[in-house]
Amino acid sequence: MSPHNHPDNEVLFSYAAGTLRPGFDLVVAVHLERCGSCRGAVASFEAAAAELIDDCPPAGMSPAALSATLARLDDEEPVGPPPAPGPLSDRLPLGRKRRLLPGAWSAPVKVAHAAEDRVYVVRLARGNVLKHGHAGPEFGCVLTGSLIDGDTVFGPGDFMAHDERHNHHPRVHGDDPCMCLFATTGRLKVDGFIRRVMQHLADV
Amino acid sequence: MEGWTSPSSGQAAPRRHSPAISARLVTAKVPPRCPHEAAGLVVAVAQARDRDAFIELFTWFAPRVKGYLIGLGTPPAEADDIAQETLLTVWRRAEAYNPDSAGAATWMFTIARNLRIDAIRRERNVLAYQLDLRSEPENEAADEGVLDADRQQKVASALACLPVEQREVVRLSFFLDKPHAEIAQTLGLPLGTVKSRVRLALARLRGQLEGLH
Fold it and tell me: What ipTM does this complex have?
């Protein structure tokens, strides 16, 4: 089933232009794997970016650049396209899992990101509530199961974006556990002392 | 909502407009080439290892890649290296390029973009694993009811039809990675106007291909 909640066009254009924060681009990439419509938009925005390069002032290459590059051509073996790897969401390199509650854990994703950001996968069990606000933007994508936030249900592949103005309390929808990938700027602002201790332990 | 773009580019912003760089940009003599001819050159490289075709591609594309990278805050020397590496990758991977799946300019742009992202990740030095996040367009199936081969042409016409002021805010937002507030100040426009121009421009670019307009 195709996702119902998508990144907006600005996020998709930034992805196409290569200017999303490291880690945040991973969340968008996981959504794109499951969303043909957004892949189409990214392909269009990549084509637009290629056209817009012509509007940017070209910068003169260093005098030796062409000859240096030509000298290296003989060493280059032609290569075909790389083999298609499996789905990104199955290959997320997770760090050590930290237990949050019975049946719930979080684990950092080992990808490059800014020191002040967090990129992590969280698994929640039936009935769990993820009660938090943000110090900055947060991108999320549901990997398995579903969450309900207000009236909106987020299923597999659904994309979620929030910023510091939002305090939201998504909870697991239905009986199945739910796994999500998140990228967050700054640490989460978690309500309550016990939760803050849990957060410290979970490093999110 | 903003704040989700790469912080590295913002930090390097003051370098963008140094007088030395501006002077070089003005004097750079680059023969203009239509990007739509690039496909034939890439195919010539793939089929015949054609060095003259490669030199043409280099002459057209390398200075533009370097300009794009400098605009996003890459230091000029590193931008020069990445532009050379982009063209070497074009030489190496030319056989993988499929003219039916993407425009050559788009294909080369994604190579340059990905090399830039790799360079940023290396700088951060926190990368434990290389996740192959991005692939060139030929590996991705998109379903917006448009053949990829037509996409470049359609996007080019959509861009050409955009009002100049919309095209300009899109370029400033994404190629100089400037926050909307800064663009508003530079252009002397209210912030809301800049935001709505970006939104309109992107919706039109996308809508053109979905047949909504």
Answer: 0.83
pLDDT at A72 exceeding the cut of 70:
yes
A78 at interface of B, judged by CB pairs closer than 8 A: yes
The residue range of the domain holding A133 is 1-204
For residue A51, what is the nearest residue in chain B, using CA coordinates?
A: B156
Strand (E) or helix (H) holding A120: strand A117-124
CATH number reported for the structural domain that contains residue A155 in this entry = 2.60.120.10
User: Best residue in B1, B2, B4 to probe A by mutation, most A CBs within 10 Å?
Assistant: B4
Q: What percent of chain B has pLDDT over 90?
A: 31
CA A97 to chain centre: 19
Mean pLDDT of A157-185: 88
Our count of domains for chain A comes to 1
Give pTM, 2 decimals.
Answer: 0.83
Residues of A in contact with B83 (CB under 8 A): 61, 65
Residues A121 and A114: their CA atoms lie apart, in Å, by: 17
**Cβ atoms of residues A128 and A102 within 8 Å:** no
